Amino acid sequence: MLNTPRASLSFTIKSLLVGATAAIASLSIALPAVADDFPTRPLNVVVGFGTGGSADRLARIMSGHISEEVGVPVQVTNRPGAGTQVASNYVLNVPDDGYTLYASTFAPYLPNSILTGGANFSVDDFSYINFQWFDLDLIAANKDSGYEDLPSLLEAIREERGQVRGAVVQGSAGHLMVRLLLDEAGIPQENLNLVTYNSGGEARSAVAGGQVDFVSISAQGSEGIREFLTPLAIVSDERIEQWDALPINEALAPMDLEVPVLQGSMRGFAVTSEMERQHPERFEKLSSAIQSALARKDVQEQLERNEMGGVWVGPERSNELMRENYQVFEKYAHLLN
Fold first, then answer.
1. How far apart are CA 260 and CA 248, in angstroms?
2. Which domains can be identified in the chain, with CATH numbers?
3. Which residues of the chain fall below pLDDT 50?
4. CA–CA gap between residue 83 and residue 92 (Å, rounded)
5. Residues 85, 126: contact at Cβ < 8 Å?
6. Rounded distance, CA 245 to CA 264, Å?
7. Who's near 70: CB < 8 A, 6+ residues apart?
8. Which residue from 15, 110, 291, 329 has the least number of CB within 10 angstroms?
9. Cα gap 64→75, rounded to integer Å
10. Rg of the chain's alpha carbons, rounded to an integer?
11. How much is the pLDDT for 253?
12. Burial (Cβ within 10 Å: 0-12, 13-18, ≥19) of residue 32
């Protein structure tokens, strides 16, 4: 029988245990991580507007294609109100597990809800997967209103206090542009009977139906009511093929006025920044699903038929664009207070 001193035996056992522990640790490092089966249940796309608007139509078309890419159903839920603040707060308060996507016209509504709406979140609380639809704003009159150009509309607002009715979506770039036009022209804001809506669909229905005299709203989403409109100006530095309208400052030239050309709408999909931090692999799956969908010819053809944008700029550029838009909006948002 081997006569081993107690201290030596204790050291030997301890050494064996340490060695075994190290071997197990190294083995666990070498083994691949357990794959995340996400998603295993339906995804929910929360839209920051009511039904019928541009963001809603985009979400409903894209949801079917995203579903095909991820292999589970994708449902759409509308949570309009407070210039998308209702939807933003909802998304920020559900679990950060990747099962909730946020679809909206993020610019300019998100900056406005922060700068003028008292929101208790920031643009950095969201991680923007992709902005796929960029749009310029159109100022257009109902065809029966009698307004044929922008100066005649502004002069009517100046002279006929409270008689001219306008439609905008609350907190939109179109809303800010109307306020900016009145400010630059020296027209009291209260001279205009301005009606604010929670969705582009409602605002367009109002001008098409003659409930208001004019609308300031995204151009591309207004194709469906073209026959009811007289275009007065496009908020751009140059003409665009789709609309026979003067660029905003060219339209204002007879009044010797000039306004900043505000960046138009940016629509797409986002999640919370906390979701990306906690589940980067899930964020990547969602990003890849949207990118793959937009790479499909049938998807692009459907978007084109519905006069929607379908570009892929990716998370990095989308987040940069959001921060840039916030800075521009911050400069002029006081006009909406």
1. 9
2. 43-135+264-335 (3.40.190.150), 141-255 (3.40.190.10)
3. 1-34
4. 16
5. no
6. 16
7. 39, 43, 285, 286, 289
8. 15
9. 9
10. 27
11. 98
12. exposed
